[in-house]
Amino acid sequence: MEYTEKEKKLKEIVEKYGSAVVAFSGGADSFLVASIASEVLGDEAVAVTARSPIYPSWDEEDAEKVSEETGIRHIFLDSQELKNENFAENPEDRCYYCKKELLESLDEIRKRLGYEKILDGTNSSDFGDYRPGLRALREFGEVVQSPLAEAQLEKEDVRKIAEKRGLPIADKPSSPCLASRIPYGDRITPEKVKRVRDAEEYLRSLGFRIVRVRDHGNIARLEVAQERIPDLLERRKEVAKNLKDLGYDYVSLDLEGYRTGSLNPE
Q1: What backbone torsions phi and psi does residue 80 show, to the nearest 5 degrees?
Q2: pLDDT single digits (tens) 234-265
Q3: What domains are defined for the chain?
């Protein structure tokens, strides 16, 4: 199926919902959904971005910026995941509690506006990964819909369609919440999350677009794209000093480079 046909199918799926609140993280998947919803549903669609210490600040900035640039109706909501003990204890199904709280907040907005559906950016590729948050989607039943998955679009399809539409973050790397940098079982605290955020913001300022700072207590384990490992090694003294200033005692480089879900259970 050509991308023009896939885009057409996606539009038809979103249009049938009638009205919708779109969970807009600032990433390429949810941006495509928000863009399509804005186009086919008009004022009957609103993109909503959660603000929280666990979300990267650059995603919030991207969500606001691209909404203004493209005319997508957009609002923020403040979420409180760190106050939820089920989440803060950091079990392996941590993402379930986070997603459930987000959907509950989005559902309140949906009801207040009188809209039909909540749309999220889950695509077909997501079903092959460890994603306990998908359980929360199922619990909401027909209220929550995943149009990308319904259209059988995989991650590469999303990027191709977004690029075709000229969306400004079509090639943006995935950016899960900062809690995903903390190994399961280690309590998630505001201090740990802030340290990770500050460390990654610093590394991004050096030009490392794809980067993860895995927080192992007093050790920071850095993951960057494999082709950028030599660049990081060239700046190892500077990087080590800055991360130690943030509170880490040791700074290590993962020689396998960045890979999705390196802290997920085997």
Answers
A1: -130, 50
A2: 999 999 999 999 999 999 999 999 987 656 55
A3: 3-165 (3.40.50.620), 178-253 (3.30.70)
Distance (Å, whole) CA 19 – CA 117: 6
Closest CA to 30 of 102, 86, 82: 102
CA distance 226 to 255: 8
> Residue 235: which residues within 8 A CB-CB, separation 6 or more?
206
Rounded Cα distance between 266 and 255, Å, is: 19
C-alpha angle with apex 126: 120 to 129, nearest 5 degrees? 140
Closest by CA position to 164, among listed 3, 2, 1: 3
Burial 107-139 (b: 16+ CB within 10 A, else e): beebeeeebbbbbbbbbbbbeeeebbbbebbee
Closest CA to 6 of 95, 123, 109, 115: 123
Report the C-alpha gap between 10 and 241 in whole angstroms. 48
The pLDDT tens digits of the residues spanning 213-238 come to 999 999 999 999 999 999 999 999 99
Q: What is the DSSP letter of 166?
A: T
Considering Cα of 215, then 219, then 208, then 261, what sign does the dihedral take? negative
The beta strand positions in 39-108, using DSSP E, are: 45-51, 74-78
**CA proximity to 47, closest of 121, 156, 154, 99:** 121
Measured between alpha carbons, how far is 262 from 122 in angstroms, rounded to an integer? 20
Predicted TM-score of the model (pTM)? 0.89
Handedness of CA 225, 211, 204, 123 (dihedral sign): positive
